[in-house]
Structures are given as structure tokens and as C-alpha cells.
Amino acid sequence: MSLQRFVFMSIMVMTIFASSSCRKSPSFEARCRERLEQLDAVIADRERYEQRKRSRIDSIEMLVRTDDSARLYDVYGMLLDEYAKYDVDAALDYAQRKLRLASSLGDSVRRRRSMIDMATLYAQCGNYVEALSTIAEVDTSNMSVADRYAWHNARYVTYEGMSLVSVDAGCRKTYGELLAVERLALVGLDLPMTFVQAEIMRSAGDDDGALELLLQMSDDEIGSVHGRAVWAYSVAQSHLNEGRVDDAIYYLAESALCDLKTPVHEYRSLYELAALLYRRGDIERAYGYINCSLKDARQANARINIHSINRLLPIITQSYDLLMARKQHRLNVLLAGITLLLLLLAAAMIWIRRDSRRVERAERRQAAVNEELKSVNAELLRINALLHDANNLKESYLCTYIDLCSDYIGRIDEYRRELNGVARSGGAAQLLETLKSNARIDRELKSFYERFDRSFLDLFPDFIEQFNALLREDARIELSSGELLSTELRIFALIRLGITDSVKIAAFLRRSVSTVYNYRVKMRNAAAGGREEFERRVMSIARLG
Looking at residues 188-203, what average pLDDT do you find? Predict the structure, then answer.
């Protein structure tokens, strides 16, 4: 996991892809989109993981109150492990506490382990002089395999950091050689050192072999979430060396995901991922990742990481600012277009409003005309009905008139023959006596009125009911048994037939004009509605039968 090697590979990748398209390939989209979205979600929700980490540290710090020195040494060790890649200054403080406690106990083994921890943390902080000085003070005699591994690892971390920050090529070469020596020393230990073996194979150019070795590791061999972060980072480096950038992005995202879930603040995967995404053209995501990495590195005081991030940050930030400027320009153009569209829309709305008002006025006029037409049509229908009724009446009148004329001609002839017989048999005196009698006239009038009543009721079978409906309930006419029409009803029957002159009605009914007038006034006064409209409503009685 050489940081110098990573920086070199990053520069090489940037050079190779400098002229390539920024669009993501279909394979990249298919394999990495979900993983990157998961990483984005963890970054957005990282406070929850941070809170979990702080709660765990708080629970361990409560154990510091013990009076057992050996137990206290172990508690300091637990806190050092929690802070090691989370807050280097805090971790260094607990390493110093361990060293003081071990010295007070006179325990050389624990003192040696504490010094190795301090040297490793000094290297992480970038205090390489202190790191080398502390390593030189460590008593290496009779060290256990685990302590020897920690001692070589402290030297490895120190030389790795020095090779990165050195500006002299000769010094970088010397530190690189010392780094290789420490790497071989780690592999020479009798420990399961798969990650170190893969690093050696990768440094020798055998990235496929390193990948085969790493991918054969089981979950138990990989270990914790942080162990998986280290494993995924190592796999990503081999893919990157072989030019499989999509695979490298996938595994770097996996490593960063595990780092942030642990969580740790001293890591490499996220800002290395930012560099690759920058070359892919995903400027916004790269900008977010590099800023997150810088914030964590500063919080952890991991100076090696800060140094590496500061090399990438100006490039990504400049590209991000350019991207934001372009987006702002597009946004301004879009806003101008939207403003123009809104103005056009407002003009169109005003125009539509004016047209709508004209249409509404036209619709109101049309509705008024339609109402007038409906009224006219209703009136025409009423008039047609009246005309139809009048035609039926005229036909009935004509038939009745012909029948009456024929009948009365026959009766006149019969009356003539009867008078002729009286004159021959009884002489002039008997003839005069017969002519003076009104019996014949009364019979004829009675017969005439009966015929008139039947004819009228044939034409208007519901006349009596409709006429009574126009009167108050206490003034309605009730007929005697066998009576068809009373005198009052005959008067208004004639009015319904169109004979409204009281003189003509009086002559027809053989009544005086005053009698007819009084009947008419009586009925008007008994009207259920307005008396002035009474006779007009009588004339509107329809033929329902």
C-alpha cells in the first residue's frame, strides 16, 4: 500500500486519461453506480456512525477509573486502538500514558510496546525525526513475533511517509529501498501476512498474482469492517496497476464505504477514489469526496494524507469551480429563457382573458337569444295548440250546425203540418190558441240546451272540473242529478267558445243582459286567483278529453 507508489500511479492515470472522454462507460455505470450511491448515502448519514464511534469511546473511557494498573494499561490500549486512525493526537496521548504507566510498573515488555505505538503515531503525524528517535530507543532483544511485527511496521510507516514528502530524488530512492527491506522483513515473520505478501508481489509487477492471492482470502481472514477496507484498497491498487480503472473505482468505493462505517479519519481510499472520478468527469462527486477526506485528515492530524490531498485539491477545486461557473451560466440562460416564457405566457393569458370575456359576452347574448327563442317556440306551440283546438272546434261547430239546421228544418216542417192539421180540424180559433201556447218553444229550448250541453261537453269533457279549479273551494258549482250544465256554466261555456258579449249571451240563453252580467261578476268575485284574469283563464281551458 505504498503511498509513493499511489501518487506515481495517480499521475500516470491522469496522463493516460487526459485526452479520454469524460463520459462513463456502460460497464462503469453497471458495476459502480450502486456502490457509489451507497457511499454517498453513508457520507450523508455519517454523523450516525460518528455518534456510534463516540459512544463506544465514551463507554471505554469510563473504565479508566480502575485502580488496577494492569487493567488500566489495557484500557489505555483499547482507547489507543479506537483513536489510532480517528484522532492521532488523542491516540498519541494514550500511547504516552501507556509508556508512563509501564515505566512506573517497571514492565519492559509493555514499555517497548508503548514506544512502538508512539513511533507509529509520530510517523502518522509526520514527525519523522521523533519517530526514528523513538524506534532507535526500542530494545529489540527477546522480542515476540507480534512485537517484532509492530516494530517493523513502525519503520515501514515512517519510511513510507518520508519517501512521499521528500523533495530530493536520491533521498526518495534511499527511503524506497529501506521500505522494501521492511516489507521483506514483515513477510519473513511467521505470521499470516497476506496483505504484505500481496504488496510485495505488486511491487514486483505481479499484480495478477497479488489479485489471485487477495481474492482467495475468506471473510474470516479479512476480519473486521476495517480489515475489509484494507483488503478492498489492496485489490483496487492491483486493478489500477493493470489499467482496469472501473474495477479500481469499484473496490476503492468499497474500501471507502468500510472506512466511513468504522469510522476512521485516517484513510486513503476516498481521496484516491476522488482522483479517479475526477478523470472520469464526475467533478461534483470528486469535489465532495476530496473535501470530506481533507476534513477527516485534518481532524485526525494525519499529515501524510493532508500532504497527498493538498496535491489533488487545487486541481479538483478548480475544475469544480469551472463546472459550477458553467452550470451558473446555463442556469442564467435558463432563467432568462424562463423569464421570456413567463412574459409570453402572461401576454398569452391576457390575450386569452380578453378572448374569454368576448366569448362569455357572446355566450350570454346567445343564451339570451336562446331563451327568447325558447319563449317564442313555447308561444308558437301554444298558438299552434290553440289553432289546432280551434280547428277541431270549427269542425265540431260545423257538424253540429249542419245537424241543427237539418233537424230544425225538419221540425219546422213538422210544426207546419201540425198547424195545418189544427187549422183544418179546429178552425181559426183553434189555430190561434195553438200559436199562443209557449209549450212548444219551451220544449225546443230545453232540447236545444241539452244538445248544446252535450256538444260542448263532448268538446271539453273536463270543462266543469277545470272551471271549478279556477274558483275558491267554497264557491265551486255543484250540479243537480241529471243536469249537464247550469246557467252559470253555460255563460262561461259560451265565453270559452269566444262569445264574450253579454247581449249575445243573454239572447242565446233567453236571459236579461243584467242577469248575465250579474252571473259574470259573481264568478269573477269567486275566483281563486286575480278576478281580472278569471275570464282569460276560462278562455284558456284546454280540451283534455
Answer: 77
